[in-house]
């Protein structure tokens, strides 16, 4: 959620230990966890009541509209052509060039996504997986 690494977490804990003190740190941590839990519950309730969850799901489905043609050479993936997509031009272009190359090189869809085009990368990988599942 916050994309905090191990060392950042250690620094945060050390600062908290210095500011709050070792005696009160468990109490502060518990109350912070309770507050976060309540906040998440409120956000979920607002999403549910306002229908934002449905809009979010519709947006995810829109980004998944990628159609590909996968050409196989025996058991190897020989070529991937993007037939159509509804992604934003310019932003998604690196994914449409790098992901097919990576999939062909690895002969697998277990490849890293392109930074800055994560959803496009995911949609493209899902489309290739779908095409491969129809071949087998």
TrEMBL record:
InterPro entries: FMN-bd (IPR007329), TatA/B/E (IPR003369), TatB (IPR018448). It is a single-pass membrane protein. The keyword Membrane applies. The keyword Protease does not apply. Its main location: membrane. GO terms for biological process: protein transport by the Tat complex. It is found in: Membrane. Keywords: Cell membrane, Membrane, Protein transport, Translocation, Transmembrane, Transmembrane helix, Transport. It comes from the Bacteria. One of its GO terms (cellular component) is membrane. GO terms for molecular function: FMN binding; protein transmembrane transporter activity. Residues 51-135 form the FMN-binding domain. NCBIfam families: tatB. This is Twin-arginine translocase subunit TatB. The gene is tatB.
């Amino acid at each position: 959620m916050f994309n905090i690494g191990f060392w950042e977490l250690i620094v945060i804990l050390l600062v908290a230990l210095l500011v709050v003190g070792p005696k009160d740190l468990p109490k502060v941590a518990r109350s912070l966890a309770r507050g976060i839990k309540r906040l998440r519950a409120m956000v979920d309730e607002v999403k549910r009541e306002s229908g934002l969850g449905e809009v979010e799901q519709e947006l995810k489905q829109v980004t998944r509209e990628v159609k590909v043609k996968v050409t196989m050479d025996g058991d190897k993936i020989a070529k991937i052509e993007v037939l159509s997509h509804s992604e934003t031009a310019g932003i998604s272009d690196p994914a449409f060039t790098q992901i097919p190359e990576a999939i062909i090189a690895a002969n697998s869809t277990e490849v890293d996504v392109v930074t800055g085009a994560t959803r496009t990368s995911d949609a493209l990988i899902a489309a290739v997986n779908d095409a491969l599942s129809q071949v087998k």
